[in-house]
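Suppose a colleague, Dr. K., hands you the sequence of a protein chain of 242 amino acids and asks what its three-dimensional shape might be. Before reaching for any lab equipment, you can write down a predicted structure in C-alpha cell form. Begin with the sequence itself:
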Amino acid sequence: MASTAAAVPADDKARKILLAKVHIAKKQLGLDEDAYEGVLLRVAGTTSAGNCTVPQLRLVVADFERRGFSATAKRPGAAKRADHPLARKARVMWISLAHLCAVREDPAQAIRGDKALETFACRQLRCTKFQWADQTQGDKLVEALKAIAERHGWDQSAKGLSKVAYVHVLKVRLCEAILAKLKRAGTAADHWLLGEAAFRLTGLGAANRAVFETQELERMAAALGAKLREHGGQAAFEEMGK
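The predicted structure, expressed as C-alpha cells, is then:
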C-alpha cells in the first residue's frame, strides 16, 4: 500500500511538469488554438491537455520536440533553420532559383538563412513555422518551387532518368536556363554553348568543354547567376517567354 500511495504524488508531479511543458511549447512554437488542438487530437485523441494521461502527455511533448520545442532556455539569436528532409530539399531548390533570378533573394542571403524561403513555405503549407510543417503535404511546396523553375526556363522533367542522373541533369539544365537569360539580356552571344559562356563570362573551365562534373556545374550556376544579377537588370527576374 505504501508504494501505491507514493506513486500517486509522483504521477501527479510528473503530470504537472508535462502539462507545463505542453503549454510552454504551445507558446514557444507560436501555435494558434486550431494548430494546438490539432496536435493534441492527432497524438492523444483529445483536444484538451487536461484530459491527457501522463503517457499521452509524454507523447505530446515528444511531438512538440520534433517540431523544434526545447524546454531548455536558448540564448537569443538567429532563428533555427528547419532541418527536416523537406526543408533541406526546398533549400537546395530555393538557392538554385536565386541563381536563376527566379526569386528576388540574393543567393548569399539564401545560403545564410531561410527568411524568404520560410515565408514562402509557410504560405504554401499553411503553417506558422516551416520547422513543424506537415511532411505529408511536402509535395505542395516542391511542386510550387518546380512551377517557378519551369516559368523561368528550368526544365524539371525526370522522364527517362535515374535518380542519380536526374540530379546531374537538373544542374545542367539550371546552367542552361541561366545562360538563356544571359543571352536574352545581350550579355552572352547567341551562339555560345555552356562551356564557352562559362569560360568567357566567368573564367571557369575551358571554351571547348562540353561535359562537366556535378560540382563544376554548381560552381558554374553560381558564377553565371552572379553575372546575370550584375548585368541582367530588371529583365533578369522576368519569366522566360515574356
